[in-house]
Predict the structure.
Amino acid sequence: MKHEDFKDNGYIEDLVAQLNGAGVNVIVGKADQLMNWSRANSLWPFCFGTSCCAIEFMCLGAARYDMARFGAEVARNSPRQADYIMCQGTITYRMAPVLKRLYEQMAEPKYVIACGACTVSGGPFKNSYCVVKGIDEIIPVDVYLPGCPPRPEAMFYALMQLQRKIKVTKFFGGANRKEKLTYAPENKAE
Amino acid sequence: MFDFASVANWLDEWLNGLMPSWLATTTECILVALFLLIAYSVIAMIYIMYERWVCGWIQCRRGPLRVGPAGTLQIFADVVKILSKEIITLWSNDKFLFFLAPFLVVLASVMTFACLPWGKGLQFIDFNIGVFFIIAVSSIGVLGILLAGWSSNSKYTLIGAMRSGAQMISYELSVGISILTIVCLAGTMSITGIVEAQEDCWFLFKGHLPALLAFIIYIIAANAENNRGPFDLPEAEHELTAGYHTEYSGIHYGLFYLAEYLNLFVVSGIASLLFLGGWMPLHIPGLDGFNAVMDYIPSTLWFLGKAFFMTFIFMWIRWSFPRVRIDQMLALEWRYLMPIGLVNLVVMAIVVTQGWHL
Amino acid sequence: MAELKELIGKLCPTAQFDDSGEFLLVTVEDAHWHQLACSLKTELHFDQLMALVGMDWGTTLGVVYYLTNTVTGDIIHVKVETDDRENPRIHSVSDIWAVANYQEREAYDFFGIIFINHPDMRRFFLRNDWVGHPLRKDYDASPEKNPIRLDDETNEDYTCSYREDENGKVTKVDGKVFEDDEYVINVGPQHPSTHGVMRYRVSLDGEMVKKVDVVSGYIHRGIEKMCESLTYPQTLLYTERMDYMAAHINRHCLCLCIEKALGIEVPRRAELIRLMMDELMRLSSHLLSYGCLTMDQGATTAFFYGFRDRELIYDIFDRTCGARMSMSYATIGGVVADIHPDFIKDVRHACDVIEKNMKEYHQLFTGNVIARNRMVGVGVLSKEQAIDYAITGPSGRASGCHCDVRKTHPYSLYNEFDFDEVVRTEGDSMARYMVRMDEMVQSIKILRQACDKLEQEGIEGEYIAKVPKMIKLPAGHWYQQVEASRGTFGVYIESDGDPKPFQKPTRMHFQSPCFNLIGVVDLTCRDNMIADLITITASIDFVIPDIDR
């Protein structure tokens, strides 16, 4: 699918226009483009599935959908080596500190896709006494993907949406991940 | 057949004519090192893509195809990304050893890589004990892996490192013995010598049964030596998450990744050198016309073709077999491969002394 | 039933009986319970504890035990109550039925009932620092009491146990989980081969596993509590999100239970469609467990083969139900929509393809010498242990238990079908794997027969019965079990017969098969290697959300 075919990315386009409005140095701009291109096209997922969505994620990797086409099949089991965490499935109060820690263990740049209704808002378990109502209460989220569970096609959409978002970041010019400050690990030497 | 040695000689003379000989030697060294490193990274990148495509093909998938034409640029994206990833420093580990480990692993693979004969006269190092040198330097790799596992100060990595220590040191014996079998047949340890001894017939066919046995032992042991295929215990993803390199991120992890694929090329290259004639074209005794046609194919192509073919076999094994357990792996080596290899060596010696080979 | 009543009456004269329900209900006082339990097991051969349901009746707390006799198939249930809400205590039966160990920990976690003489009274699902017991009716659910805690949970290295001496005095005794100098590694909660967020704390001696401490609850979502605030049709959706690999079957079970309570007659055609969906689900589940088992052992390609064929089944679901997973298809009184016109054609096609590809699976993995070495004789579970731990489903049948509910207590239309119960006697990982593979053949057989039946009895027809708009269950309690893809899935519903509209269940308990399966992890993995831990847990094959609910 081509970039122009998406009609609903107005805000990303605006963001690009805004970023480029002040003018960009040619070298820095090109280097940024290269960096963004490579980061967007080499998204290695972290295997993090807690429930149903994980099965659809496996389907995503399997023969019919094959996320290897995007170069995203190198699923890493160690958070240090992964690029994005597609949080598949409900996060409970007991799991919340684990998820936060896993997120902190990932190397920058790191991205988060909240995959499935449970991670977006708590989903069908919103009224439960021990379910986190959306993982954005714990970690910053880049792409929200509703569905219970989302179909693999939807997961691809989320992946491509993440790629689009990555392509408007600036690596050489300016800091672009302010969350880093808010979510900094409090005490490393605990 | 074109001899690359003439190019090297011409370059040597030209440089010596331009500058004093010490400077010429230094320049040559730098040129060779540059060339080596470029070849190293290019081959590693090609191999990573090769693996991803082959694996996709075996698993009824398409593999990478969206980045660049038919996915060819995928690997560049990966490389640039991994170069720009954060390198995480842990607070509780031995930092010096932690950072040293990936370089040791890469060092071992670069040094073995340098010994491979790329074509007629195209070789970085050519000793009279080249094979011995390969065996010696390839064992530095295990040191890197052990250090990586130990210095990460994590329980998983430690188990991975201990497993790899047990595994690589054991299987090194079998690799050594099967290489020795061929050295016995060739009568020389020099890499050029071994290749040239296969001019009329490759050793795989020349040595009858013992050579075939040595070939099979070599394939199994090299797979284990490389932490691949059914022997990927040190990084056994489903047991130890990522094994010895669990705590490495960014380019440090990238170096392990690179070395893994380069080692794959090295073992395939050594297999083709020892058993399939290295850069030597396929010659069938008696068919002179056919042999002459084969000679027209450049020697580098022959070598790369054979190495890629061997790699394909390694990949095929890797993606088909389940992983062995640590005790079964050690039992396979110490109870079967090594005794068979030793007997095989004796048989080969008898075959050579009696002149029963082709 | 009368005979049983007499026999139990002899064993325990103070017991009260109620045989108005489906099964005999025995009510005993806690003081006599442990003794009665012993004699029930030894003399009346009630050797399997199927379900242990903690209850809060408002004024009293208690437990309902479902016992089954694996030889005759008799089922009774026993009710034990205590009216001490501050300090509720009931005698533990974990020494009689091993499965009660985790079940009682669950009841403690949810209701705060302390089981005397239980070896390990730690919380099971909730954090150690959780305030209150959530399934009690007087639980304070305000978020201030239990906020999201982002600090790491402390490991509970001490177990506490309440021991009773001869004089009946109960004292608290501390025990240790691991010794100080043991090499303990955490497998999970985030680990590729725990199949979800399960955590084993494994004590290692080199590569050998010395002890496994299961820490569960990382995906405990409080489904049972939520069901108490929903009407019956609304509760249906949660069944699919427990064992998502048996979504149809679980939902079918809850539907059957509610239908049983309401006395609704389901159209035969609807029942047939549900049965076909169940079998398709079983097929898909076994394909997944094949894939995961092979991948956990490093044979990645086999995983892809399994997934390739699952897509065919997903297509069938997709066309008829409109979703690939979480289909929400079965409903009270039938199914929500009619089948797709191509349904039978698709099912036949999928059966043919999978049957053909089964050979490939066996070639690729089963016959492989490495696979055989890793699975034969590894993690042996004897028949006695399987019954003691209430292991059902393929894992139980691999140990020689005849525990297929489709045969022992046929539900739906299963007694009309010709299929075999796959039973093996080895009880090792290979047997568990082979039982699944053979069950796939049986499922294909059932599906083909069902296709024929559906064609004979009319492709078109009614698919849902007349169901009252307001579903109100009479006062009482019901238990229904079905054969889910991983074992016996049971639903326990208790209703107070509230006449108001939008009636809600007083208690809804899901007896999930996987919950019992984790009970044997420690038993089977001990003295095996760490690589075997992965093989064994993969061959036992549990789905974590089903354990934690």
Summary: Residues 86-354 of chain B form one domain. Chain B is about 70% helix and 0% strand.
